[in-house]
Specification:
The protein has about 170 residues and is of the alpha+beta class. It has a single domain (about 5-170), classed as Aspartate Aminotransferase, domain 1 (Alpha-Beta Complex). The chain is built from six helices and five strands, in the order αβαααββαββα. It has helices spanning about 5-20, 50-65, 70-80, 85-105, 130-140, 160-170, and strands at about 35, 105-115, 115-120, 140-145, 150-155. The protein has a five-stranded mixed sheet, with helices on one face. It is globular, with a radius of gyration of 17 Å. The chain starts with 5 loop residues before the first helix and ends with a helix.
């Protein structure tokens, strides 16, 4: 899972399981896979869910969430079955929320580099007016690059929680 990433792992797992069952995979190929690489612990510990099969199913359920309603449903199911969630599982669900926000905003990748978060924008969804709006609001906290894959670098506030700050920034887009 560490080598291919969480989403790709779930996608491959889904494809293999469905192939063995003789049915179609449930992953929607039309949806962009958003890569997120930030310094946040987001996993399901063995102490929280001991059964490996159940743990994989929960990872898969989270990866398949495409809107807030589905995230709420998965959250409710996790709490009902396993009790109060540790912070790492909450972070996993928040990352699912961020991925959904990214798909709506045309962001294909988010990478943390020290105190900077880099938001890579889809060429087809790129809108210079958004960059201008963000520049006016955040001034020196952001930088824009119009390379082959345009990106915005946002300097985070070290005193804030990174997930919260990313979500606030995405809402401004």
């Amino acid at each position: 899972m560490e080598q291919v990433g969480y989403d790709m792992y779930c996608k491959l797992l889904d494809e293999v399981m469905k192939e063995l069952q003789g049915t179609k995979p449930i992953y929607n190929e039309d949806l962009e896979d958003v890569q997120i690489d930030i310094n946040v612990s987001s996993y399901i510990s063995d102490n929280y869910i001991e059964n490996s099969d159940l743990k994989i199913r929960i990872y898969q359920d989270i990866a398949l969430c495409r809107n807030e309603e589905e995230i709420i449903d998965v959250t409710d199911e996790i709490i009902d079955r396993f009790g109060s969630m540790p912070k790492e599982v909450e972070n996993l669900l928040e990352i699912a929320r961020i991925k959904n926000m990214c798909r709506q905003k045309g962001i294909v990748k988010i990478i943390q580099r020290g105190i900077n978060i880099v938001f890579y924008l889809s060429i087809s969804d790129f809108d210079i007016e958004i960059v201008e709006k963000l520049t006016k609001k955040y001034k020196q906290k952001i930088k824009f690059s119009s390379s082959a894959l345009p990106y915005i670098t946002y300097k985070i506030d070290e005193n804030k929680l990174i997930i919260k700050e990313i979500k606030e920034f995405l809402k401004e887009m």
